[in-house]
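It is worth pausing here to work through a concrete case rather than discussing structure prediction in the abstract. The textbook approach is simple: state the sequence, then state the predicted structure, then interpret. We follow exactly that order.
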Amino acid sequence: MTLQEYFSTQPRGAISRMATQLGVSRTWLSLITNGHASASPIMCAMIERLTKGKVKRKVIRPDIFE
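Step two, the predicted structure:
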């Protein structure tokens, strides 16, 4: 599942809540979600944890995680 697919199943405000938990802006997380920016390896692991494994780090950054 991609981040975009994940957020489409979540209630309104989910991007803002996750951005706060990650310590980044909503805009930055939106850029990552839409493929216009890259998440760091640490952020990928945090996203995987926050989504309870629904979004795998290797989906966010296949260039790093295989």
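Step three, interpretation. The chain has five helices and no strands. The mean pLDDT is 96.
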